[in-house]
Amino acid sequence: MPAARPGRPRSESSRLSILVATGELLVEQGYDRLTLVDIAARAGVGKQTLYRWWPSKASLVADCVLENVVRFEPVVVAPESSALAAIRTWLDASRALLAQPDQAALFRGLSAAASSDESARGKLAERFTEPLIGGIDRALQSGIASGEIRVDVATEPLAELLIGAMMFTLMRGEPVGADWADGILTVITRGIAAAPAS
């Protein structure tokens, strides 16, 4: 009995064309208006090629960014002498990144992809969400150890709240201004700062 014939192998040039087209259209149109028909047309391939290689639009968008065809690197909190200063630096750097229209569009698209597809959500969490939360969590833990932050602060939920606040503001289509960062930091400082030593 003859061996089963393998399926048609991927064409690397077609695959890259599809990923590039996806990134371009995601920035131009946004995730909601992005269609596989438009991607196929811009990439110069048949729509069935996309369906054969990716199970959903979300997984295609995720691969587009995960393979660095389109660059999106969220800012991760870096250690500083003060935990609150590190968070402020992160807020300012993230605000500057998301003030760029193409980066804001990519961020919205990735968020939508993660919310609609379990496979995409897992890939994007490993690449983006977990490092973001981990960086903030480590900064807060450092602040607890140094006495800057109260010992009873739940650091990981607070990290999720900080990221969620930025996502919510961005999803409303509003620019994340310096006054927003000031307000966030004021609330955080009042809520978690350790009382001065008497």
- What oligomeric state best describes the polypeptide chains here? single chain
Q: What is the strand content?
A: under 5%
Number of helices: 9
Query: Could you tell me the number of beta strands?
Result: 0
**What are the low-pLDDT stretches, counting only 5+ consecutive residues below 50?**
1-7
Q: What fold name stands as the CATH topology of the largest domain?
A: Tetracycline Repressor, domain 2
- Strand count, sense and closure of the main sheet? none
Kindly report the average pLDDT value.
Answer: 83
Structural class: mainly alpha
- What is the CA–CA distance across the termini? 86 Å
The helix fraction, in percent, is 55-70%
Describe the SSE topology.
Layout: H1 12-29, H2 36-43, H3 47-53, H4 57-66, H5 83-98, H6 101-116, H7 118-146, H8 155-171, H9 178-192
Helix pairs in contact: 1-2, 1-4, 1-6, 4-6, 4-7, 5-7, 5-9, 6-7, 7-8
Model description:
The protein has helices at 12-29, 36-43, 47-53, 57-66, 83-98, 101-116, 118-146, 155-171, 178-192. With 198 residues, it is an all-alpha fold. The protein has 2 domains: 12-66, Orthogonal Bundle (Arc Repressor Mutant, subunit A); 83-192, Tetracycline Repressor, domain 2 (Orthogonal Bundle), CATH 1.10.357. The longest helix has 29 residues, at 118-146. The radius of gyration is 21 Å and the shape is elongated. The termini are far apart.
